[in-house]
Design a protein that fits this description.
About 40% of the residues lie in helices and about 0% in strands. By secondary structure, the chain is an all-alpha fold.
Length: about 110
C-alpha cells in the first residue's frame, strides 16, 4: 500500500536491490496515515513515515520489515511571520512542535 504515485516504493525497492517489481502497483491510499491504519488492520504491507507510525511501531501493532529505510521524498515546513517569533504563545507552540517532532524521530 502507498499514498503516492509509487515513487517511495520504487526508491525502497531500488535501495533494497529488488528488480522486476512495479512500485506503483498495489492499493493507493489518500494519505500516509490511511496506509498505516490499513496495515495495522492487516490489509497489507505499507511503506510509511517513521514519524507517523511511531506509536504503532512502539506498541508492536506494526513491525518494520527488513530494517531497510530510505530518505523521505517530501518534507514538512514550519512557516511563521518573523515579527511573530517572539510572541510567547507562538514561541511556545513552535517549541512544542519541534519537541514533538524530535521525539518522533528519536524513537
Amino acid at each position: 500500500m502507498h499514498d503516492d504515485d509509487g515513487t517511495a516504493w520504487s526508491n525502497w525497492l531500488l535501495v533494497g536491490g529488488v528488480e522486476g517489481v512495479d512500485g506503483s502497483a498495489g492499493l493507493r491510499m489518500g494519505t500516509a496515515l490511511l496506509s498505516i491504519e490499513a496495515a495495522v488492520q492487516g490489509l497489507g504491507v505499507a511503506l510509511g513515515d517513521k514519524a507517523i507510525a511511531t506509536e504503532e511501531l512502539a506498541s508492536g501493532s506494526l513491525v518494520r520489515l527488513f530494517g531497510l529505510g530510505v530518505p523521505a521524498t517530501s518534507y514538512y515546513y514550519l512557516v511563521c511571520d518573523p515579527d511573530q517569533l517572539q510572541v510567547p504563545r507562538v514561541r511556545a507552540f513552535i517549541d512544542w512542535l519541534l519537541d514533538e517532532a524530535g521525539q518522533s524521530f528519536a524513537r
